């Protein structure tokens, strides 16, 4: 068994988030059945007419279609049979909307033991309508997540990328949570609880710093064009002499010095305005002007070649034409063509689980006859754990190796967390993957270099010396130091690997191999190990060794070209989109690998993920649209996440209005009549002038009176204060001894982590981890510390 064959998933949904969750499962071989009405599900009609057919072909690849009038009493027996034989039901029906659903009526009538796992992926507000004062529309998820408030020019209208990133990231998170929940249930011979994911949750969790920073500082970070708020160094977009743009990223002092030497030689490096990170923070505008002048005098090719010779992290802003011509993308097989339709390949790539496509999106009811006569049976699970131990009812091992457990925790905590995760992560992508693994039930040991630590400790704002971002990233991790260049350090690392379930690393390709700790060595030490490797350009291909950071990957993927207004420079999405997306997609790969290993009887494996690949996977229509139109899709400024740059009269317009307090609202304008009512209300003023005269309450009252659908564009502070997000457990208030009152993200399941916010010191958990997991005594720990091993 090479993938998720044997896993049967029913899709009962009309929105992209739920459908994308099923698409990811189908990519790895799950049997995915779209249960739709005779006229087809609404997804077939989503978006501008020009892209609907293409979108469906890609979104529903490898799926089957079973069409019927599901509300008719004659279909009750078929629904019951489907639910009995399926492993998952993925739906966009939130709990308050279940009345009248034949699917949930059938579930309620079934014995609990026979029910499949229910996976809900629904628009923000659908679960708690009494606490959500705005319209429930999937297009509003970006405004609810915080990302829209961070994207755009300072003081100007917030904008959305014209691609369904929020929906697809929510779908990825839902698929991840579902596989982890189903794995645990199979191992414990128990029925899993419903997995719920509102569309805002993934992106809101990815911007993990926004509520701690806002509540600690008393103000929310806002959009800053292409110099996004949490830049720790030099990172921006610059015009080239041939009319294109390049992205530059230099987040450390060493990379900043190399960049400035390339642009202005030793004189620029010695300039006191730019010589240190602290000095640069007050003079970035002048430095960016110098870089603009340098790039503007050269072609894109000249800039890239010069940057490579100086080991400067730099990359072009791609259109789809560039994506199709890129040698690294071609070498890694990121683009596949099925029956003439170009689309992204399976992401992420996992050894022994490469994925395949059975078909393009099927016609309505294409599989009725086949599925009526032969329905896939549910696979019996394999519940044996490593070394012959079997999981007891609490998830701990009754024999064999000790189960992984929170180091220093009590016995009840330890039996609930059987996965041991080692994180060799730095900055964002690896650490975010580690954070997600902790929330999904793993005991995470974060390894840092003695005396140095993760660069994330020094990134972003602080309060009274406490790093606000690091406290969000590291709160549920055991932070240790270990010198992997020292023989004793390597030996201790391999002892940890022998016990580990998962290793997360985001070094440049070749770093672990040069340390003598490459995949072949680690696999020999623990054949059951699942290793997630995230790098700028992946482990293979002609550019594998090239340095890469998130903004470079975003430029390469095509998403930047779909963000902004027509005729203006493109814009980055206002947070570390590529890094955090890679962390999330990487953990989805881990969840699939663990399910294969522990439930389907497979082995471990390695996940090889380039930073740009998750974004390419989510921009699933850009390649096919290019082929259809003969030109690259490009930003239109329409704020429609389903448009891919195509303006169409059959789609709503989305406009923003702000006021003098700096708050903003996103409004859906579905037709000319609605537009007329709004313009009559505004009168001769512009929308901006009208909003500036009103308070939040006034704007909401007027829009409600006009029967317009709208939502607030939430930022870190308004998220922290929202009764809806508080009730869901998306954000929690806490006290920190160094920071004071602060709000932080809740866990993905809505529970409260303890502590909710923690910024452990470098090596703070050394004694607990190395004594408890490896049995080292105090004398040995002192020797290792004295010799610089830990």
List the helices and strands and how they pair.
Blueprint: E1 8-12, H1 16-27, E2 31-36, H2 49-59, E3 63-67, H3 76-85, E4 88-91, H4 102-109, E5 117-122, H5 141-145, H6 165-188, E6 195-198, H7 201-206, H8 210-217, E7 234-239, E8 245-250, H9 253-270, H10 277-281, H11 284-296, H12 300-309, E9 314-316, H13 320-325, H14 327-331, E10 335-338, E11 341-344, E12 349-350, H15 368-373, H16 411-415, E13 419-424, H17 429-439, E14 442-448, E15 462-463, E16 466-467, H18 468-473, E17 477-481, H19 487-499, E18 502-505, H20 511-514, H21 519-525, E19 530-535, H22 550-557, H23 577-598, E20 605-610, H24 613-618, H25 622-629, E21 653-658, E22 664-669, H26 672-682, H27 687-692, H28 696-705, E23 709-712, H29 716-721, H30 723-728, E24 731-736, E25 740-745, H31 766-774, H32 778-786
Parallel strand pairs: 1-2, 1-4, 2-3, 4-5, 5-6, 13-14, 13-18, 14-17, 18-19, 19-20
Antiparallel strand pairs: 7-8, 8-9, 10-11, 12-20, 15-16, 21-22, 22-23, 24-25
Helix pairs in contact: 1-6, 3-4, 6-23, 17-23
